[in-house]
Amino acid sequence: MRAWWGERDRALRAPPFPSFPEIAMTQVEPTLAAPMPPSSIDFTQVFAAQAERSARIDALRPGNRDRLFDGLSAAGISHVTVTFDGEGDSGQIESIGAWAGDKAVDFPPVEIPYAALTWDNPEVEMRQLSLGDVVEQLAYDFLADTHGGWENNDGAYGEFCFDASARSIHLEFNERFTSSELFTHEF
Fold first, then answer.
1. Number of helices (H), then strands (E), in the chain
2. Which residues, in sequence order, are CB contacts of 8 under 8 Å at separation 6+?
3. Residue 158 lies in a domain
């Protein structure tokens, strides 16, 4: 008597695995480079230098603001509005408008001194910039100081008001963000 599974079982079985020749294991030299030596950069010194530079830039702002407000007042400009918008790693000032009371006016073709530091020179550089260029530079500086990265990801938008009569700068800042809420339920 033959087993009922014999023929059928042989037909369903996969062919036997082929035999492989024996492979001798050999030692291989490492392919990764040796670890890097420790950094020779003194980050405490780097951060201290950056803090000193930031303090020097901050010390220049009151003088730049005063010269701007003096120039705006001399031109009969009561206030300036600056709108900005940014997202996706790009941002820009959209518009700069000068006002005499409720009436929109043009900036006069005058230049005022603007104190700045450049990356390659530790000395203060005095530049002659138009009133509009000083407004734009200060707006970008204040955005970087208060909301660094405002142009990244979902970004932000808003408006500055440079009030020459009050000698103040007001910023309305709207930050965009994507939100997600998780709800779980068991039934």
1. 3, 7
2. none
3. yes
Tell me which residue of 113, 103, 62 sits closest to 79, measured CA to CA.
103
Full domain range(s) for residue 88: 46-175
**Mind listing the pLDDT tens digit for each residue in 140-177?**
999 999 999 999 999 999 999 999 999 999 999 999 98
Residues constituting the chain? 187
CA–CA separation, 87 vs 141, rounded Å? Answer: 18
Residue 15 lies in a domain: no
- Per the DSSP assignment, residues forming a β-bridge with 172 are 159
Beta carbons of 100 and 73 less than 8 angstroms apart: no
Q: Is residue 142 situated within a structural domain? A: yes
**24 falls within a domain:** no
Question: Which pLDDT band, with edges at 50, 70 and 90, does 31 fall under?
Answer: confident
Give the position of tokens 């010269």.
67
Under the banding of pLDDT at 50, 70 and 90, the label for residue 79 is: very high
CB 100 within 8 A of CB 107: no
Nearest CA among 112, 95, 106, 108 for reference residue 161? 95
